Structure of Ribosomal RNA small subunit methyltransferase A:
Amino acid sequence: KEIDIANPARTQAIMNAYGLRVKKSLGQNFLTDPNVLHNIVFTADISQNDNVIEIGPGIGALTEYLARAAHQVLAFEIDDRLLPILDETLADYDNVEIINQDILKTDLPAMIEAHLDADHPLKLVANLPYYITTPILMGVLSGPIKFENIVVMMQKEVADRLAAEPGTKAYGALTIAVQYRMAAELAMIVPRTVFVPSPNVDSAIVKLTALPPRTHVPFDEPAFFKVVKAGFAHRRKNLWNNLQSLFGKEPETKNMIQMALDAAGIDPRIRAERLSVDEFITLTDALHAEKL
Ligand code: SAM
């Protein structure tokens, strides 16, 4: 059996054979260390019963490990130059499907329905393209698909935000989107040297595990994510100003915002970084009660 794709010599050989030059603009940093890949699959606790979504398979280094461990793998890759390469590198695995799409423009529920067997636990595993780590995570976490866990490599600086405490600089809309449904833990710090080419930031593998369903849920979930995003839209502004930017500055609207903040027991002058997930839920419901 052929050796792993994730090996510096084989990665270079594949790239040479196809004349592939990586596109930095697409965040292409390929993993070449089997230990790191093993660690990712181990952290995600993938079993033969699991279906896995992968974002950005690249030349297939992680995909191959996922295919060996999982029931099925559905991977989204934006760069069509990689399709013939993946055809070859993953030829031995009949449980992998590659979709040539931008993950930010993908209708994930429809894709899952069309391409994966039903009734298997769903996990998300990826070595993310770092230029869009935050929009990918925000999209996945505020979307309708409930993943059992999410194990993703990202830049360390973003990883720090996921488990941040209220009142810290790292605490933001992403933190709240994560903590709304998942528990975050840092699984491993990864050195730059295991990637080809090396990224110019430090990396970390983060594991997000689904929490039991919340007892306190917002009346309108999309509205909750909207209020969270708006709360942090201008980090130096207080909550009062950010809510006015969202809803408007007309006297009547201001009055409604004021009533909602009063009802929620929240001081308009504080910044969003002081609010817990539960307080954002209470605030969203109070705004909703004011018809905002
Ligand atoms: N999984 C491979 C590995 O670990 O070696 C490659 C990871 S590389 C960090 C990120 C991958 O995401 C690249 O293959 C890149 O082309 C792909 N990518 C970048 N933007 C994307 C997007 N919007 N949608 C889907 N894939 C994207």
In short: The beta strands are 30-31, 51-55, 72-76, 96-99, 122-127, 149-155, 182-190, 195-196, 203-210.
